[in-house]
Amino acid sequence: MAETSAPPVPSDHIMGVYARAPLAFERGEGARLYTTDGEAYLDCMAGIAVTALGHSHPKLVQAVKDQAEKLWHTSNIFCIPNQETLAGLLTAHTFADVCFFTNSGAEAIECAIKTARKYHWAKGAPERIDIIGFDGSFHGRTLAAVNASGNTSYLEGFGPPMPGFVHAQFGDVEALRALVGSTTAAIILEPVQGEGGARSWPDADLRAIRQLCDQTGTLLIYDEIQCGLGRTGKLFAYEWADAPPDIMAVAKALGGGFPVGACLATIEAASGMTPGSHGSTYGGNPLAMAVGVASVEELVKPELLAHVREVAGYFNQQLTGLKDRFPDVVVDIRGKGMLIGVKLATPNREFMQHARDQHLLIAGGGDNCVRLLPPLNLTLDEAREAMGLLERACEAAQATVANERVGAA
Description:
The two termini are about 30 Å apart. By secondary structure, this protein is of the alpha/beta class. Helix content is about 40%, strand content about 15%.
């Protein structure tokens, strides 16, 4: 099916930091997005793992309506009851004792870094400021977040690298051991990398890193902004390894599309965060908290998590078959649960266009991957539909490869 779409949204007055696809959507329902001219697309991006319950989920829509008619915002100078409700939900289902609410994942990462450094300062070790991250990681776009990630393409032009950030090789635990020293505050990692190519840390490595942190008094920070809240088939990815962190950043699915993030921590890790040490104007406002409560109440349901594992198993089986049938296109299948990476032999941006030509939306990723990040309540029938569209995208990509070979002969 040839792609038809509305003209691109005019961008004369929008800062030119996005390489936008020429599509504009005006409404969504479940796993479908509809363009301004009525074309339907199967959404296997979910706003990059954000709309985890699909578009226009009735419980989330009602939560927004109900709260919007009562109270949108108050200052954190006052008590906000739904903060207690959402914090109670998150701590009841995780390692954490306390939460700080933010508007985004990057803000949650900033809070995590500050929490780790302030912990050591309060314990009488102000020299412990170094944050060790990993190649291929992505923690957000603020200056501290991009320095924690260490991706040179995101750092270029924004001044010299900030001190206090060290980088290790993904998957090399022994090299990591050599980096941990007397100035190390924390190790930060994504249990399943998203932007970096959907690479998943082996369970044994996460347990080894947890042990290393315990032995050295180093705090362990997990970034579960993308891989958390049901995406891997457990509520949080660290549960597969039984290797809990001391601090964790979450966002994306937390608000189901409404901007909400959180930094979770043990009471010990957060012991340096005293009144005045951190804050947010909008973070944890009543409207955001109402949506967050509604979202998490759905995401913690065992039947939803079981459904994620079932659909993920189907995708993994079918994608493995796709790899066998299209070896000139598909190199590897990666990820965990419904954070699925497909490493390609052909340029990933071209493949994304092939998918859009079939009215299938997928995300890009590092290491020449594309990612499937569908709503967690995607039905099996919709998963079958997605695989059919992906197969046609592979056929188009394979035809391009064949044509290029003929042209080069």
